[in-house]
């Protein structure tokens, strides 16, 4: 069998790359950077890759709307793309410098860095550390945290520092002066692992997460599988949304998240994304199947976007 | 009585300014630009202004998460801010040039514009027009569409064009070469009109929208009032979200939208924003009050964010 091919959002050594490397850590696979989420979805639909690993939500910033819009699939371009797994990556930032620039490390750091590089979002995530040790130091926005590490790795005379992950530091061969400089220790991004529902190569491979999340953020609920369903309703019918949501409860499915995106058919009409969890008891084995059947009676459109092992539930600990 | 003061997101002649001018068109008021949504909220909380007009949702791009985060009010900074109205602004773009630069207008346009200015989002909204008439012409991003109009208004020798609203054209005194150059005629932004619940100056002034939306996007439903409620639930309790949502239906309230934002207390726990509509029948006059009482039994926190006249419902046409 040829090696598996897995798409992620580049550049190399991005957080998406790290999540992909960790979630496919035990499986022999080629990890392939793509320039956009849409290109990764298209590659999967065309079976140019076997899987794609795409961020869908961050615990601080909320949902990734570009991912929801691709899952909404308003043009029916990605009809065979389905969710088969999830991966939680806790976002840790490090202060990085060129290899050997500060032989004593952080303990011996002399305050001589004159310019810092990182992605605009990372400044805000490391505010406490930066205002304590780097007040007034010039900040240069770059297109990714990985890019900042790369710039610093190629410096000769400059005194630059980058804020990026340990993964990016190792990839670009730079020194870590200080680890975990982020304000929130629990800032976590959830990635969805996607496959093509028609691809035989991935049909038999049950996705197992090698590294469970390190933080103690598991609810006590014994949910072991999650399902993502999108639907649209007749907005002119009073109670239509409530009627759809009640169906989940009536089949013993616990609603774990709800998102909406504009339908783009008519203003103020939405595509709803509902994630529901299922406990592993015997009597509700067909709960998702039955709920989908009922949903089709009260919705305008309704799509099953996949079922996968819940990585936060107690039973998978 | 001194004139009313109304806060909006600047600069002058922004879409927020236009929405504010139109919604307060018949009322004598000072319209005051603010540098951020947070500053407008703070001014309202401190009663430095009487109202604030803040975008909450766009029919193409979806919810404005910054506004939801301010309404979430995790630090209890804006406890007295409440929603008292809404206004729908259909986004129309025009091609603008310096006054007198093209006396024949669009009919006599000679193709000599060499540089275009607008906000990054507007390029994508006018793609069809731009690719037809301005292929290859240099594009300069600016911080707002109004800023683009201002730059063009001050040109002397350059051949610049701006993409902005008719409102910005009139404000900056530039010529409109072509109107309605946007791809989607129905691209609409919904603004919330906010007041301080403790302010006596605004207590008696029922907010009336002078210009109803021009597009035929009204559902046939006879909803006449909408209420926004935020709540958090115990995520470890199965069915907690469904139980909260069922309460709206049981009191005859129609769910018109649902949004979520991270709670920032614990990852994967959310603040829910539910908007519900109420028909004007007599028997459910206290429906919102009763629903809130019931909600408080099944939620961890629950906040009434205001009730206002639904501007899309048939009864207000």
TrEMBL record, chains A, B:
<dbReference type="GO" id="GO:0009094">
    <property type="term" value="P:L-phenylalanine biosynthetic process"/>
</dbReference>
<dbReference type="Pfam" id="PF00800">
    <property type="entry name" value="PDT"/>
</dbReference>
<protein>
    <recommendedName>
        <fullName>prephenate dehydratase</fullName>
        <ecNumber>4.2.1.51</ecNumber>
    </recommendedName>
</protein>
<dbReference type="InterPro" id="IPR001086">
    <property type="entry name" value="Preph_deHydtase"/>
</dbReference>
<feature type="domain" description="ACT">
    <location>
        <begin position="229"/>
        <end position="309"/>
    </location>
</feature>
<keyword id="KW-0584">Phenylalanine biosynthesis</keyword>
<dbReference type="InterPro" id="IPR008242">
    <property type="entry name" value="Chor_mutase/pphenate_deHydtase"/>
</dbReference>
<dbReference type="GO" id="GO:0004664">
    <property type="term" value="F:prephenate dehydratase activity"/>
</dbReference>
<dbReference type="InterPro" id="IPR045865">
    <property type="entry name" value="ACT-like_dom_sf"/>
</dbReference>
<comment type="pathway">
    <text>Amino-acid biosynthesis; L-phenylalanine biosynthesis; phenylpyruvate from prephenate: step 1/1.</text>
</comment>
<dbReference type="InterPro" id="IPR002912">
    <property type="entry name" value="ACT_dom"/>
</dbReference>
<keyword id="KW-0057">Aromatic amino acid biosynthesis</keyword>
<keyword id="KW-0456">Lyase</keyword>
<keyword id="KW-0028">Amino-acid biosynthesis</keyword>
<dbReference type="GO" id="GO:0005737">
    <property type="term" value="C:cytoplasm"/>
</dbReference>
<feature type="domain" description="Prephenate dehydratase">
    <location>
        <begin position="5"/>
        <end position="196"/>
    </location>
</feature>
